[in-house]
User: What shape does this take?
Amino acid sequence: QAASASHETVSQFRDQLAKVAELVGNLEQRVTHARERAEEQVDNDFSRRAGLITDSLNSNAIDIAKALSTDVSDTAWAAYLRGDRSVFTRRAVSLLESNEAREVAQIYDRDHDFREHVSRYVHDFEAILREVLATRDGHALGVTLLSSDMGKLYVALAQGIERLRK
Assistant: This one.
């Protein structure tokens, strides 16, 4: 009778262990699924924030380019309206390449609107750079970002206002 009772107890214990193993397996699947969803959400949030900041940078580049040169071609506006949002960023970079940082500093000191646009541009670029550097491949992406037209404009403006030391 004792042997039968212990055999029954072992059988029940085995059934309970099987149920626990099944529950653990289900829990592991849920954790994996939740982790994947969280990573996807982080990626989506990063992409959305990066897109908004990029739009802001390109928008500020319009006003920066206008302050550096009053000659804004109809072709540039047409390209912008067709969806080339970085046309003024590229234009500002080319204008800064021909001007010295000293001239940027002079405009920055005397023109309040230019100062606001440059400050916003520098702030927004540094925000996106922080976001990029916080990602897994951030350093490689950061180098790419700094070598882009937006990055070149940031470096030129930051040097011009002595935000970065040369």
Q: What stands out?
A: The radius of gyration is 29 Å. Helices lie at 2-68, 74-81, 87-98, 101-110, 112-133, 138-147, 149-160. The chain is about 85% helix and 0% strand. The chain has a mean pLDDT of 80.
